Amino acid sequence: MWNYIIQLTGALRTIHTQGLACHTLDPTKILLIDNKARIRVNCCGIHDVLNFDPNVANPLASMPQYQQEDLVNLGKLMVALACNSVLALQRDNIQTALELINRSYSRDLAMLVVCLLTSQRIKSINDVMPMIGARFYTALETATQRADTYESEISKEIHNGRLFRLLTKLNTIVDRPQLHLDSSWSETGDRYMLKLFRDYVFHQVTDDGRPWLDLAHIVSVLNKLDAGSSDKICLMSHDEQNILVTSYAELKRCFERSFNEILQAASSHKTALS
Q: What is the DSSP string of 228-239?
């Protein structure tokens, strides 16, 4: 309950400090997101657009009145939340709803609702802040933890995207049927080393011939290639007749040269067509 109140208060404060009003602070205009942990105020500004009068000399003159209406609507919204029903906002039910809030919730919450509905002690959104008190710290801590979680997940996706681009380029090189009408292009020079590297990453087998699957190995090796590490790597052909010892730095140079060659071939083809 307090989490929603704090979020609504913060949203109103952002709007009011810009000299504007919400106009649409109603239970039907509140969106619940993020497993109902976050709220969004919908349709803000619709009232200003639909009721705009170009003949009014100063359209902001009535803004303090509209902001006061926002505070009253905030109180009504709190009543609906506390009673879990919009029927509590009806004139015949409001007194019963206030009595229910007094019995079921803290004195701070009941006092805040009464002050909002009757405009007592609360003349602006800033007057709401002291009545919420230290509960802001709990909301701030929750928001910080949520931000840390999102940042951690986004960081993973950044690395996933980097490795995806690397694999995409590698697959445009390895086993390419031909380039410049050369059908052996992918089997010679830099491309042959990259083909052996592809097998080293994805096609390893155990001593008894079973596929060896290790995601940590795949990610580690691809990161070393992307970074151009000086670590050595031993590459072996399928028939075990060819063994190459090289570094990830050299493989990266082979990788970049081969991909740039494909880019140049693609660019020259576009130029010829144009």
A: T---EEEEE-TT
Element (H, E) at 259: helix 248-273
Local structure of residue 182 (DSSP, 8 states): B
Hey, what's the torsion of the CAs at 143, 148, 154, 158, to 10 degrees? Answer: 150
What per-residue confidence (pLDDT) applies to 229?
92
CA distance 34 to 274: 50
Question: How far separated are the first and last CA of the chain, in Å rounded?
Answer: 64
8-state DSSP, 237 = -
Rounded to two decimals, the pTM is: 0.57
pLDDT of residue 49: 82
CB atoms within 10 A of CB 8: 22
* Type and span of the H or E element at 38: strand 38-41
Which residue is listed with tokens 């009595």? 99
CA-wise closest residue to 221 among 189, 177, 255: 255
Q: Cβ(76)–Cβ(70) under 8 Å?
A: no
Question: pLDDT at residue 147 above 70?
Answer: yes
Q: What percent of the chain has pLDDT over 70?
A: 97
Average pLDDT, the chain: 85
In the numeric block, the tokens 């010892």 are attached to 245
> The tokens of 120 are what?
């007592």
Mean pLDDT of 236-253: 88
Q: 177's torsion region: left (phi>0), alpha (psi -120 to 50) or beta?
A: alpha
Q: Name the one residue in this structure whose structure tokens are 């205009």.
A: 29
Write down all domains in the chain, each with its CATH number in brackets: 2-133 (1.10.510.10), 158-273 (1.10.287.3700)
